[in-house]
Amino acid sequence: MAVRVQREVFDAAAEVQALVGGRTDVGSVVTFTGLVRGDAGGRALRSLTLEHYPDMTEAELLRIEAEARERFGLAGSLVSPHRQAAFDAAAFLMDYLKSRAPFWKKEAFEDGTETWVDARETDAAALGRWGVPVTQK
Amino acid sequence: MNAVSSVTTKDKAVQATATAGQRLTLRYFAWVREKVGRAEEVVDVPGDVATIGDLVGWLVARGPEYEAAFARPGVVRAALDHVHVKPGASLAGAREIAFFPPVTGG
Question: Rounded to whole angstroms, how far apart are CA atoms A114 and A130?
């Protein structure tokens, strides 16, 4: 799995093709695409800004990937011969990403106000169900 | 005589290491960055600043902007050389410490 954080628009179908093209051992691919909703808490959103810590993001995403490989027995890339491992690995990666990867969202509203999004307890709890100790208090 | 002076020299060396402190790069993100008023700085901390928690205490004493950033106890998170750590983590050998709110990505 390649780990990339980029500003540029990407083509999800092309990314999948790059992973599975030419391979016959892959039986399933699960992808997740997050989209920015038009409102937050009932207020119209003008923009969403994502701040991150580049050096740590890369290190943390590689740790997340290594952890997923070990747990779900994935080799070579994060694609799987069977669908259950693919679904589980995708859910695990997203839970891990949301509670560990150093990203912070700032919402700007149509009324001119801006706020940093609060961390949700549910994200840490979701990671907890994988038996992962949540290092963030 | 020789032995005694050798011991004395060694003790002095140990003492010098213990009080010399260290140079750290500090990085701040999201609202911690906004409250501190900068994204990054290099600081020389005294030798008695041994843990992340000590460092927070030392920073808070430097001025109101740090006091504001660390006002809510236990909210601000830390990473030591790109790894999440708890307040008790030792600064021994550390180069870069980052402070930030709980993450909200994904």
Answer: 34
